Amino acid sequence: MRVIGLDPGLRLTGWGVIEVEGCRLRHVANGTLRSDATRDLAQRLVQLKDGMEAVLRDFLPDEAAVEETLANKNPASTLKLGMARGVALLVPALLGLPVTQYLPMIVKKSVVGTGHAKKEQVAMMMQHLLPGAVNLSPDAADALAVAVCHAHNLSTRRSWLAGREDPLIGGRDVR
Amino acid sequence: MRVIGLDPGLRLTGWGVIEVEGCRLRHVANGTLRSDATRDLAQRLVQLKDGMEAVLRDFLPDEAAVEETLANKNPASTLKLGMARGVALLVPALLGLPVTQYLPMIVKKSVVGTGHAKKEQVAMMMQHLLPGAVNLSPDAADALAVAVCHAHNLSTRRSWLAGREDPLIGGRDVR
Prior knowledge:
2 copies of one chain form a homodimer. By secondary structure, the first copy, chain A, is of the alpha/beta class. Chain A has helices at about 40-60, 75-95, 105-110, 120-130, 140-160; strands at about 1-5, 10-20, 25-35, 65, 100. In chain A, helix 1 runs parallel beside helix 2 and helix 4 (about 120-130) packs across helix 5 (about 140-160). The two termini of chain A are about 25 Å apart. The relative contact order of chain A is 0.21. At the A-B interface, helix 1 and helix 2 of A face helix 1 and helix 2 of B.
């Protein structure tokens, strides 16, 4: 199964696609989408939508996982983050993919083992877990981490459904 | 020329379409789009997108005007508002329409004459200015008001370009 992780932001949106086979994970591709800050807001959202759509069509993931970054202290930035997150939830849903959101703390706990891991630790762990993922941008590393977190969550759910263990990592329902 | 006004919100998004002929305004249609709060967030954004797309295809406006409601005190609500506003900016832009945002104060000043007008005053003024607009929901009244504000702004711009007067009502560029 293929999972795409998205770390949405109006200026930069990270994305990362992994292949999940049971407990084995394989890096497929990653990158960063940029919107042109000199364009108007509506056009920047169109750029993000077009970029995400192209990635989804190129790599055909089966499920999407989106980082649920907490609101910023600056309300104007929170509005912009909301717009970018809205596009990141909307575009995969329009193509029929299930979309799950994960809080950054849950992602860090899942991939590094502690909810307070630093950005560099997350990037290092991604390069360790996914050998093909080199020269990662911070946003692409975060996006791959969300995808890995979703893969862990899926496998934990499967184990739980099979009655073997309790689910340790909780994905937030997107409500 | 046809203008659609949008008052975006995740739960309720008001819309209103008017016909602008020189200084004359005519009501075409209005309504409220609802997203189902029991669905997940991605699906609610899909519902808003589908609803807006249907309205745009039914009434074929030439330009869109979106109310730029200020951020809420509650960061979680601000994020949701950002998502709904993102969809309201994205959908008309995807269909090639120019999109302008207006602050609520500018809309009220334009349609009632004071930036501190109450919601009921805006609704009453809409029914006065646009005789066909009856039984307006609060969100549809606000959406029609944004459309009327855009029409005023366009005619002021035209007069200004013709060297007759200074622009009094400023539309915010969507950046």
